[in-house]
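Aim 2 progress update. The chain analyzed this quarter is reproduced below.
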Amino acid sequence: MLIVGAEVDGALRDVRVERGRIGAIERCLAPLSGERVFDAAGGALLPGLHDHHIHLNAAAAALASVRCGPPEIASCEALVVALGGAPGEGGGRGVGYHTSVAGEIDRRWLDRFGPDRAVRIQHRGGRMWILNSRALALLGDDMPADGRLIDGDALLRRRLDASPPDLRPLGSALAARGVTGLTEATARNDADDYHRYARAGLDQHLLVMGTAALDDLAPHARARAGAVKLHYHDHDLPALDALIDEVACAHAADRAVAAHCVTRAELMLTLAAIEAAGPHPGDRIEHAGVAPPPAVEWIASLGLTVVTQPHFIAERGRAYRAEVAAHDQPWLYRLRGFRTVGVRLAGGSDAPFGGLDPWSSMAAATERDLGPEEVRFTPGLPTILAGLRAGSRSVGRPISACSIGAGPPRASISPRSASAPPSSMERPFTPPHRPSPIRARSPPKCAASTAPYRRSAAARSGAAGSRCRLRPG
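Predicted structure tokens:
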């Protein structure tokens, strides 16, 4: 492929792509016989963006679902109108609901105000579905009487005999926004899921996180296995010893861990477990929803990456002001606070639980009014969503790029092949003050040896039992 008229480091250049790598960068290059030509029309040639945290099946299904919460829907009246147009034959599927719209809705509310057909709405936290009476009847017996089904995704798939959605429309929508790489972040992903994603026809390079079933899986098409996903919540947090063992087992398989940490309690327990097991290159904290200064310093000392969602502040600001303790609001989805102490940041949409558009996310990071001191400088923002380091547009480097000009970002140029080296954001990160590489201690520590880490966690997190009111939604 030949990219003509692209802005590269402040000058217009032509760029030749050969077998997924940059072959030449010159002021003017003549097309070769049969070579595809892409006219950048003066747009900047940027590293392709990488969404470092997305749920592919749910995001694909959401494209054909009704938005039921902020920012699109902000009132009860607007929700009723939206549900009246719910798509689907014999049923409707809504996503993104939050109580700020119409309160704690249930089966009776949907029966009264929703359409006269089967409807189910997913809370934006992802764990709860609210179903009306017609939808409950389709699912059979032993369903909750109030229609509020928690952690019931597997049950819905089984009883509705639902097939995985077509991921290609989602891939196209992301490519149109310049996204050339994806990290699938669903905790339950197994080997079957991995191969299904690889065969889904996505143009993007794909990193799949999930269970220990992904250990030792070879690259397949554009997909490769990523970290072991740890996904716990305040109400079901494991004992520290058990979490240490889980982290150590992942490290023993030469896999990093990616830990869901939205609340203060989730974060502190996870950091204690990683410290006890010994950090491994590539270990990452997903979200870091609440990260007070002691936690930020702890993350930095362990050399962890944080995958954050700056757009959540824009999309959920009103709810955060109402639900999050005032003293924790400055520590929500931090940016500058992490970068100041050298913590590597990556950006992820968390779609469908957050917006898909990476450019809106970058804009939100420069305009936040909740913890405004956390705003990142604009020149650094694309790097947290990039598949390659900024400035890596040099001859011989793998290319995964997008072009942006006066209009919307254009489709990805040439997603690299599975055999190409991983991007800088995906490479294991070892902080300069630690030996390289860091390896897990094996076998996992016994309960007696974890006492110091329990004391350390309690000391860093403040008063025993301290919890933040912030929840995954």
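The domain at 231-387+423-459 is CATH 3.20.20.140 (TIM Barrel). The radius of gyration is 23 Å. These observations will guide the mutagenesis experiments scheduled for the next reporting period.
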